[in-house]
What does this fold into?
Amino acid sequence: MSSSICPLCQQDNRCALTQQQPAAQCWCMQQTFPAKATLAGRNLPSQQCLCQSCVQRLLEEASQGIKRLD
It folds into this structure.
């Protein structure tokens, strides 16, 4: 799978690095991320970034105490 695709939703992750832009310009540099435990057991590729929508959804689910099974 392409490094520009979010491994959770299969949409463009809009990573600046995959668009040959400096890392400092990436949306993720200003983003709060869920705890690593939130992603445990998902078998996600280490070289693929999540998209901003999926990160937001994971943060919302974690704040509500929802544990995803997928």
Notes: The chain has a mean pLDDT of 85.
